[in-house]
Structure formats: structure tokens, C-alpha cells
Amino acid sequence: MISCSAKEEGNGGGAGTLIIIGGGSAAFAAATRAVELGVEKVTMINDGLPTGGTCVNTGCVPSKTLLRAAESLHRANHNPFDGIETSGHLTDFSAIMEQKRRLVADLRQAKYVDVISHLPQVRLVRGHAKLLDAHTVEIGKARLTADHILIATGASAAIPEIPGLAGAGYLTNESAFELESLPESLLVLGGRYIALECAQMFARLGSRVTILQRSGRILPVESVDITAALTGYLADEGIEVVTGAAMEQVRREKQGVVAAAKSNGQRMEFSATQLLVAAGRKPNTRGMGLDQIGMELDERGFIKVGPTLQTTIPGVWAAGDVIGEPMFVYTAAYEGALAAENALTKADRLADYTALPWVIFTDPQVAGVGLDEKQARDKGLEPDTAVLPLRHVPRAIAARDTRGFIKLIRDRKTDLLLGARILAPEGSELLMEAALAIKFGITVRQIRESFHPYLTLGEGVKLAAIAFGKDPARLSCCAT
Question: Which residues lie across from 16 on neighbouring strands?
Fold first, then answer.
């Protein structure tokens, strides 16, 4: 039981005291930034997931290592080079999962537990926190007070209200990454990044996978050219993609799960041994008393914050997935540090998501930054677009993998880069040049005139810049 206060008597003129509710990336970034600013005491209260939150335990780390495992098996069985015979076999699914667990444990220790152990101003408390007012938190029968409170409790899988779903049983990303045996078949409810990454991973490991997406296409907020191409690549790997699927019922039968949906006016049934729900995220705010203190939430329950990340309750701040989109580990860390700085120094720095890069780790990857064509037009700009198929990128040709394209969007009047969308193997590695160009006002002409080593994927960005004025099919090697 906690019997002491997070706020010490007689402040000595430091940066004050801080309670952080949560134990993930936003919380740790806030704690370390607070220490840098001279905070007197930080009390971090964590409940739910182990220390480290979603990213290291059930999100980025486990998903990306499992995706790489599945990719290794896939590439062994799909070697594009003549004269080389390769093959791969899944011999022990549980061994892959155990290796994943060791990686998660190692990174949790090195990047979270060890980090906080070297910060004497920070103490970690296990328990569920309830806010009583702008400076007081209750944990069981104990109460803690501080000058400032930061809510960084993250988000978890949102479960749609479908008749029979709860009784039939389902997986989320958390439970799917802890399976001991590979499902023979899998239904995936959802068509955005978590759903697509998991669907391809399990398919490459050997499951028969069907994606059931309610919208008319996967990744519905992205442009049709990306979603159409990615749908085709997934279908090429044997993944069935069903769009416009409005779920009506789920039931458990002897052989597995059956999902009934209406698609294009027809009622259809889909069956598999397991069902994975990846239909969005919900904020972790249950039982925190936010409504009782008058904190405003949005229509989905995420905490409303202003541009400095202060909530509608002065003195209470929020950061990370609990405030909604964008929900990335790196934006959570950015927000946690920014909220701590604003709380402790009254700096009133505004959150700035200009040139925010993002990646969906399918294969090929979907990567983007800045505006797409529609978003640019909605802002009153005149976008000009160049699309470079990877069949014109020498590195991709040599690697015998020309899936995808690089699309650049510029302002027709100023030549400034407005955005980029990339569908390519390792497309994420091409993204930062475009992000930096947007952030620092580099023009397309300057990209075109910069040196890009021949036979790199990065050269594709230059070729895409050239494609605004020239046909890339008519360029010689290293041409400008």
C-alpha cells in the first residue's frame, strides 16, 4: 500500500512534482524529460500491460519480429534468381513465439526497466489510478498528490458489437502474438494496418487467411492506387480480401468460428479455426473517474487536449494513444516529452505534426508523409503528382522485385514537396528524404539535383522527382 505523497512538503524551487498515469512510451519519455528539467519527484503509476506498454509488449516489437520471421520463410520459397534452389519449412511455430518472447523481455529490460532504474527521482508504482481532482490520484485506499498529472494510459483493441462474437471467442493482437500453434485458417476482421500486417504474417507462415473489411476497400483513407495495388499483391499470396462486408453474426461450431456477413447485398458465411479482431483502437480510460471531474472526451472516448496537450482540466495533461490519432510509438514519445515540458516549465510549446512519416509494414510496405492529392486540394493548393513505378528503379530491377511505386506530390506554384506515398519493399527506408524535404522546405528541383548513389532504392526518390518533367522510361542509367 502507498502511504506517502508524490508531492513533498516545502518545494525547493525546482520544477515541481509530477504524477504520470501509464507505463509506456509516452510515460517514459515524460519521465526522462521531467528529470532533465529538474523535477523534484515523478511517480509513475502503471496498470494493465507490463512496463513498456503496447510497443514493446504487444505492438511494434513482437509484430515486426514475427513479420520478419514470416518474410524469411516466404522468401525462401519464392526465390527469383535462376540457378539457385531454396526452400523453407515451418518446423516449430512455438519456437518462433519463444524467440519473440525473449526479444520482448530483453528490450523491456534494456529500454524501460534499466532506464528508469537510473533515475532516482522516478518511482514506479503498480496499481489502477483514479483521478479525484487536478492534483490528486487515488490508488486503492491511498492518495497521491502532485503539482501536475499526465495521463498516458494508451489504447487497446476495440471490439465491435457483433451478435455472438463474445461467446464465439476471438483473438486480438495481444493474444494472437501469444499463440502456441499456428491456426490452420484465420478470419481477420478489419482492413487497416494491424489487420493487414497480421493477415500477411499468418498467411506467410501457412494459415489460410480471409480479410473481412467493412469499407469498400482496405486502407480506406488512402488513395485508390495504393489500396488497389496492395490488394492485388495480397491476393497473389493467396489471401482472400472481402470488402464491403457488414458483419451480422459470429458463432462457434465444432470445427471453428463462422462469421456471417452481408457483402454487396448478399449474405455470405466465412469459416476458420480462429478469428482475429483488428477493427480499431479504444482509449484505456475505464474506471479513471474522468467524467466525475468533468474532463472532456471525444465521441470515441479519447481525451480531448489542446495544442499544448493540456486537457480541459487545467493542470492535467495527456499524451500518447489515449488522445487518439496519430497513434504511433514515436508520436507518443514526442507527446509525452512535450507535455512534461509544458507542464513543468509553462513553455506552452505547441504539438507540431508537420512532415509526420508513417509506415504500414506489409510487404510491400506502405509509407507516407505529408499531404496526398485530395488533402492538398482541400487546403486550396494546386498539387502536381509524379508516379514512378519501381520497374524504372535499377536497384529494384536488379533485386528482381519491382512491386509498387513512388509517388511525389508537389505544389505546382512553388515546387515545394507537399507529400509522398510509397508502396515498395522496404518503402519505409525511402521515406525520410521526403519528410526532411517537407520539413525544411526543399524543392523538388533540389531533390532532382542532389546526388543519389546508383543502384540504391533511394535513387528512386530522385527518379520520381525527375518524373515531374521527363518520362523515366526514356532515361539512361544515372540520367538527370
Answer: none
